[in-house]
Structure prediction request, 138 residues.
Amino acid sequence: MEPNYTMIDIKKWSRGKLFKSYIDNLRIVMSLTVDIDVTKLIEFSKSNNFKFYPSMIWIVSKIVNAHDEFKYSWDSNGNQIKWEYVFPSYTLWNNVSCSPPRQGHALRCALWVYIVKQRYLRILAILHQSQLNKGRPV
Prediction:
């Protein structure tokens, strides 16, 4: 999959002057943390036979991708960009590696990614259906 992003013209960007001021004059480090109650997500994951970690990553990814502010970055040439979609990184706690040191690992990694995507689609369908059943707009 090709990475899709938009180049940002700092001079035309509404936040360009502020951004330039911070980049040129301050050392910026950002860390974003928040305490959240995941009890319902744990219950939902268990009742639908999902693992908690991929479910949590999926929800966080949906939230991150709903806000442009989380999708700004730099390309390999140092140009300001905004990603169309930010993909999560996963920690694999087993011997399957996405960089195949020997035959078969790439296939297992591709299969794992496919399985995760299918589970996400299943979670989305279940959440969508539960919202429809409660009469809430999606």
In short: The first helix runs from residue 16 to 25. The domain at 3-27+37-89 is CATH 3.30.559.10 (Chloramphenicol Acetyltransferase). DSSP finds four helices and three strands in the chain.
